[in-house]
Specification:
Oligomer: single chain
Largest sheet: 5 strands, mixed
Number of helices: 33
Radius of gyration: 30 Å
Shape: globular
Length: 814
Amino acid sequence: MSSKLFIPALITCTLGLPMVAQSDYEYNLARHKGNKIVLLGEKSTAEMGVWRNVVDSEEIYGHGFVLLNRQAIVNDSYFGITERTIGTFETWFRQKYGLSNNARWAVLDMKNSLIVSGVETPQAKELDQLLDQRGIKTPIRQTRDFLQTNPDHLDAKADLLNEARRRALHVMPSGVTEDLDTESDLRTWAVFANETDKVFTGSWLGIEIQFFRINQEQPERHSKLMRDVFKKHVSKIEEAVRANPLNGVLWNIWAWMARSMSDYRWETFIDSIEPVRFPYYNIQRSVPAPEVSMWLVDEFRKKSEWEKIDKIARNGRTFSGYSAGVIKVEWIPGGTTNAFGADTNHIKDYPAKSAYAPHLEALLKLGRVDEANNIYDELIRIEGKEDRYSKSIIVNGKSERYKANNAKIAADVAVSAGMEDIAKIWEQGELIDKSPWVSRGPFGDNGFPSFYYYSNSSNDYYKSFSDIANNLPVVLRIQGVARAVDSLGWKGDDGDRWALIGGDLRVIDQGRGLPDLDTLEASLYRNGIKDVTEYMRTYLSEHGSQPGLELDLAITLIENFGNRQSNKGDQAEHDDPYVEACRSFHRILNNHPDTIINIPSMVVRGDNARESQSMKLVSKPLLTRLESLLEAKPSSYSLWSQWLFWRWIEGTQRPIVPIIERIKPSPLSTPGTVPPFNVINTYYDECKRDEKWDKVVELLKTVWEREFTRIIDLQSENPDFKVSDIVAERYTFTSIDDVKSHQIQRSSATMGDRVGVPLIEAYLNDNKPNDAEEIFNAWINCGGKFFSFTKTIDLAKEKGYERLSREWEERLAK
């Protein structure tokens, strides 16, 4: 082995740096998930280029190494590492891993254990050989091995496909415009094609992969290997979509395959699907899914199929880009911290360009000018003449703020259609229909009517209005207007007002004072407004059995009944309003049990659902099914939320601990995300209830060490920092360090009570008074305060720790 590579022995050494600094540095290091290469000391641009070539090489790329030089460590340090302290971090790093002062780099595995270190930059093949000798598996190898013993694990299958595709896209030659030759195809796509075939040959329903992106190329189209796999499996995807047409992930998988096959006649499948929107609250549910609809619109536009565009373009209202997702990595009692990543990068000129522009063009081409004017008005009402909010878009790989000129986009469409007179009107950005309307509310365009009200005595009026509206046969959102709205024609001295607002934000009906039930019912009937469940029932009656849609209908019925105290129309029909929903659940469980894997989340308030005997009869078989599915997809927030709900319905409080201990996260799951935070909250509460104090300590200790070390680090840099000072909200900051300090200050004031107290009590209950004393002393010594500690002192006395309770009382009295 080359002398420039140092293989570590077992390291045991006493380090001279403070323990809190170690913990904080450990935390920042752990924020970088997966394998990593840490570069020590300053690196020139040329040196960084050499290292990037190593990391991007075919031999090494599959390991997914994160390359961390000084700049990367500082920029992505949540707390504790700055340009001024990076040298201290590197000293700590050398000591921790037993590195000499000559070492210039070190390779760590997913658990931050040292694999190898060295002075000179190694060759890719040399590093690859060493990794193989050390038994370091690539992420693909890890998931393959995991699937050998867990063959139906959907999270692991998704991780495997994501990793295999990442590698294929890295190897894919740039600038390809035609099919790859056989050798290049094998080198680039063989692994991914093989894994894709295996996944879709076995149990795949419920897998969450989203490889279709309307604004990105589909490189699979240049691979005969991939096209052959798609031809083999696309029919089963179509079957799944027909059964569950509201599932966006299924539509994404279908579009990924369909767009990649030039000889695949996807129009045959689309023509068999009736486009529809099922708007409900702030969720847009459409068939096809919004992003896929926009791809189809683009394809129809190439063929000048304007009627088809008119049918499907409206489905793209919610498509304004795509989100990179939310990764929750931290938990505290009662919820998660703010330390999670969520990046939403919108596409330039969307949604106006995607949802509205082609629809306007189609209507103008069809000569339906009045309808085009209506769509234009909707664009201005909902999106504004210009975007009301600037959006983050990606330009040449960098994030930039951008605000689209929606009126100009519409006018350009009119010009291209040869209608200059209309273009001049549209470019002004003024509404053509001047009837009353409201600006886009906090829930945006949900495509479904809602009630607005304005009142000088809003609390009383809202309650009275809600009591009436909750007895309507249609469930509508009710939201107050904080001040008089000019576009509605409402004035501040007009008194109490209400309005029925359409999904396009135009006023459908309005009135003064408090309306009675008959008035509101007549308004709904006069304007043809039905409950979303009625739209679903109608669609099912016209298009036949679709288990996924029937499941969605059942859940919507349960939400509607559970979220209001009574429902006049349905309760008059039978004593138990949940019978229809439960019949659907029984049919699905008996005839289409696989559909449950894609069950949506459900939010139900009130206790009346728990009183239903039909709901209780569903709970046992459904819980059994959910538990088997959670073993295959333990990351699913929807499955877990349904399990928690139906356990509550069952009323037996079946324990969560056994299933938590039974599930196995995918080896590539981000720590802290499986199971989701709401499940950890329940698990935490039940561990306390069942007096499993070792498990409570295990949960709380991780949070305590993380939060406490941030505070200590800030104190070392800012001696004036007061731990338990209550900090007011701020809206302007001079630097990112200022933001970080403010976040710590806001959370630190009550951390002693939120985390310290339950941890101390867990230690006391676990008969570990010395550990409890250590937490107490650490918090008090750093300037922290306990605002509610009486019960903890009483617990210490109850457990016989008189000395502790006496000392705690004395210190808190000072």
